[in-house]
Amino acid sequence: MFPLLVLHMLRKQPEYGNRIIKQMGEITGGAMTVSPNTIYPLLRRLEDRGYIVGEWENPESKSRRFYSITPSGEVKYEEVKELFEGHLLRVQSAIESLQREIYG
After folding, report:
1. Where are the domains of the chain?
2. Quick count: other Cβ atoms within 10 Å of Cβ 66?
3. Is the pLDDT of residue 33 over 90?
Protein backbone atom coordinates (compact mmCIF):
# COMPACT_ATOMS: atom_id res chain seq x y z
CA MET A 1 0.00 0.00 0.00
CA PHE A 2 2.80 2.45 0.83
CA PRO A 3 4.37 2.30 -2.64
CA LEU A 4 0.97 3.03 -4.19
CA LEU A 5 0.41 6.00 -1.88
CA VAL A 6 3.89 7.40 -2.54
CA LEU A 7 3.46 7.17 -6.30
CA HIS A 8 -0.03 8.67 -6.00
CA MET A 9 1.27 11.67 -4.06
CA LEU A 10 4.20 12.24 -6.39
CA ARG A 11 1.84 12.34 -9.37
CA LYS A 12 0.48 15.59 -7.93
CA GLN A 13 3.80 17.31 -7.21
CA PRO A 14 7.37 16.61 -6.10
CA GLU A 15 7.62 15.93 -2.37
CA TYR A 16 10.24 15.16 0.26
CA GLY A 17 10.19 12.31 2.78
CA ASN A 18 8.82 14.06 5.86
CA ARG A 19 6.07 15.70 3.84
CA ILE A 20 5.12 12.30 2.39
CA ILE A 21 4.91 10.89 5.93
CA LYS A 22 2.66 13.78 7.01
CA GLN A 23 0.41 13.45 3.95
CA MET A 24 -0.05 9.70 4.55
CA GLY A 25 -1.38 10.49 8.00
CA GLU A 26 -3.65 13.20 6.63
CA ILE A 27 -5.02 11.05 3.80
CA THR A 28 -5.87 8.22 6.20
CA GLY A 29 -7.21 10.45 8.96
CA GLY A 30 -4.37 9.28 11.21
CA ALA A 31 -5.33 5.61 10.87
CA MET A 32 -2.06 4.81 9.12
CA THR A 33 1.27 6.08 10.25
CA VAL A 34 4.63 5.45 8.69
CA SER A 35 8.04 6.02 10.23
CA PRO A 36 11.11 7.49 8.58
CA ASN A 37 12.68 4.02 8.94
CA THR A 38 10.01 2.76 6.53
CA ILE A 39 9.61 5.64 4.09
CA TYR A 40 13.25 6.42 3.31
CA PRO A 41 14.22 2.84 2.36
CA LEU A 42 11.02 2.69 0.27
CA LEU A 43 11.95 5.91 -1.52
CA ARG A 44 15.43 4.52 -2.24
CA ARG A 45 13.94 1.27 -3.63
CA LEU A 46 11.50 3.17 -5.84
CA GLU A 47 14.35 5.35 -7.06
CA ASP A 48 16.62 2.33 -7.69
CA ARG A 49 13.85 0.78 -9.80
CA GLY A 50 13.46 3.96 -11.84
CA TYR A 51 9.93 4.77 -10.65
CA ILE A 52 10.92 8.04 -9.01
CA VAL A 53 13.87 10.42 -9.20
CA GLY A 54 15.22 12.47 -6.32
CA GLU A 55 16.97 15.82 -6.37
CA TRP A 56 18.46 17.71 -3.47
CA GLU A 57 16.78 21.02 -2.73
CA ASN A 58 20.19 22.44 -1.93
CA PRO A 59 22.93 20.11 -3.23
CA GLU A 60 25.64 21.74 -1.09
CA SER A 61 23.90 21.03 2.23
CA LYS A 62 21.64 18.14 1.13
CA SER A 63 18.85 19.59 3.26
CA ARG A 64 15.82 17.96 1.62
CA ARG A 65 15.56 15.50 -1.24
CA PHE A 66 12.52 16.11 -3.43
CA TYR A 67 11.16 13.13 -5.34
CA SER A 68 9.24 13.16 -8.61
CA ILE A 69 7.53 10.33 -10.43
CA THR A 70 9.09 9.14 -13.71
CA PRO A 71 7.28 7.84 -16.81
CA SER A 72 8.11 4.29 -15.59
CA GLY A 73 6.61 5.25 -12.25
CA GLU A 74 3.42 6.38 -13.95
CA VAL A 75 3.11 2.97 -15.62
CA LYS A 76 3.84 1.17 -12.34
CA TYR A 77 1.31 3.36 -10.53
CA GLU A 78 -1.46 2.35 -12.93
CA GLU A 79 -0.53 -1.35 -12.60
CA VAL A 80 -0.46 -1.30 -8.79
CA LYS A 81 -3.58 0.88 -8.57
CA GLU A 82 -5.54 -1.62 -10.66
CA LEU A 83 -4.31 -4.60 -8.63
CA PHE A 84 -4.92 -2.92 -5.28
CA GLU A 85 -8.48 -1.77 -5.92
CA GLY A 86 -9.92 -5.26 -5.35
CA HIS A 87 -8.05 -5.54 -2.06
CA LEU A 88 -9.33 -2.17 -0.86
CA LEU A 89 -12.90 -3.11 -1.74
CA ARG A 90 -12.58 -6.39 0.21
CA VAL A 91 -11.17 -4.55 3.24
CA GLN A 92 -13.96 -1.97 3.03
CA SER A 93 -16.57 -4.73 2.85
CA ALA A 94 -15.01 -6.55 5.81
CA ILE A 95 -15.01 -3.39 7.93
CA GLU A 96 -18.64 -2.65 7.06
CA SER A 97 -19.58 -6.24 7.88
CA LEU A 98 -17.80 -6.06 11.25
CA GLN A 99 -19.46 -2.77 12.06
CA ARG A 100 -22.92 -4.21 11.28
CA GLU A 101 -22.19 -7.36 13.30
CA ILE A 102 -20.90 -5.54 16.37
CA TYR A 103 -22.93 -2.34 16.37
CA GLY A 104 -26.04 -3.43 14.54
Report:
1. 2-103
2. 16
3. no
Give, in order, the Cα–Cα distances in Å from 38 to each of 34, 85, 100: 6, 23, 34
Alpha carbon distance 93, 8 (integer Å): 23
- pLDDT tier, 60 (very low <50, low <70, confident <90, very high otherwise): confident
pLDDT band at 32 (very low <50, low <70, confident <90, very high): confident
DSSP annotation string for 42-69 = HHHHHHHTTSEEEEESSTTTT--EEEEE
Instruction: Could you please state the CATH topology (level 3) that the domain comprising 2-103 is classified under.
Output: Arc Repressor Mutant, subunit A (1.10.10)
